[in-house]
Amino acid sequence: MTVSGRPAGVARALLLVAALAVAIEASVFIGWAVLDLLDLSSERLGLGIGTAVFLAAYGLGQLIASRGLLRGSSWARGPLVMTQIIQLLLAWSYRDVAAVPVIVAMVAGAVVALACMLAPPVTQALGADDRV
């Protein structure tokens, strides 16, 4: 169900949870970018700046898409689903490192966001624009 073009009811609640999970993840990526810039050294200047720019852009992109998701824009779900799958793969790549809390946080955030974005009420609410 939509109200004034925006999802309502259960779909709205699920989108809010997904957007919150993604916003937290995005904040971590932006914070990571800032920390990377603060840790620059002359030996890795180019790599450090490049990594920081990528992480900041990735985080900002997630924030923009999560805002679109809150507004009920169906375009936002595709990029966010893709970033959550990337995050799951990234967590899998850390499995040999002793960073269990980081892995758990990455997987939990991605699973919550994916479950909410792919839930049937959200799919119906966001798909309502496509049937017009």
Distance between the termini: 14 Å
| Beta strands, count | 2
The neighbouring-strand order within the major sheet is: 1-2
Count of alpha and pi helical runs:
5
Q: What overall geometry do the principal axes of the alpha carbons give?
A: elongated
Low-confidence parts lasting 5 or more residues at pLDDT below 50?
Answer: none
Order of helices and strands: EEHHHHH
Based on CA atoms alone, the radius of gyration comes out at 17 Å
* Percent range of helical residues: over 70%
Describe the biggest sheet? 2 strands, antiparallel
Class derived from helix and strand content: mainly alpha
Number of domains: 1
Mean pLDDT: 87
| Strand coverage percent | under 5%
Walk me through what this model shows.
This protein has helices spanning 9-38, 45-70, 77-93, 100-117, 120-127, and strands at 2-3, 6-7. The chain is mainly α. Strands 1-2 form a two-stranded antiparallel sheet. Strand 1 and strand 2 form a beta hairpin. Helix 1 (9-38) runs antiparallel to helix 2 (45-70), helix 1 (9-38) crosses helix 5 (120-127) and helix 2 packs across helix 3 (77-93). The two termini are 14 Å apart. The mean pLDDT is 87.
